[in-house]
Amino acid sequence: MNLIAQNWVAIGSLHDIPPQGARCVENGDTTIAVFRTHDDRVFAMEDKCPHKNGPLSQGIVHDNCVTCPLHNWVINLETGLAQGADEGATVTFPVKLEGETIYIAVSF
Ligand code: FES
């Protein structure tokens, strides 16, 4: 039987991320972009666009989406899915806020 444990890791404060911005954290070989929306919701996904691996953390956050800075694909921050006619998905990670501390769940 394979057991995958999830570990909630505190990665900083909500105020470390500008509204409608992102901050990156490293988890092994994976760079995770943690996004803050204009209304202080947080989302976490791999910092890799499903199109050609563009750095989503440098994109524009709007509503619950981010627009990739390279070719303007729009990625849903909740699902990681490309929107509209584009197809593909970015890996997302569970994330939660406790007070102003952000936690992400990583598997090990
Ligand atoms: S790499 Fe993101 S839209 Fe092309």
TrEMBL record:
Entry-linked InterPro entries: Rieske-like_NirD (IPR012748), Rieske_2Fe-2S (IPR017941), Rieske_2Fe-2S_sf (IPR036922)
Gene3D superfamilies: Rieske [2Fe-2S] iron-sulphur domain
Gene Ontology terms for molecular function: 2 iron, 2 sulfur cluster binding; metal ion binding; methyltransferase activity; nitrite reductase [NAD(P)H] activity
Record bears the keyword ATP-binding: no
Short name of any one Pfam family annotated for the protein: Rieske_2
SUPFAM superfamilies linked: ISP domain (SSF50022)
Transferase in keyword set: yes
Residue ranges constituting the Rieske domain according to the UniProt record: 9-104
Top-level lineage group: Bacteria
Swiss-Prot/TrEMBL keywords: 2Fe-2S, Iron, Iron-sulfur, Metal-binding, Methyltransferase, Nitrate assimilation, Oxidoreductase, Transferase
A GO BP annotation: methylation
PANTHER family (UniProt xref): 3-PHENYLPROPIONATE_CINNAMIC ACID DIOXYGENASE FERREDOXIN SUBUNIT, FERREDOXIN-RELATED
NCBIfam families: nirD_assim_sml (TIGR02378)
Protein name: tRNA-(Guanine-N1)-methyltransferase
Species of the source: Rhizobium oryziradicis
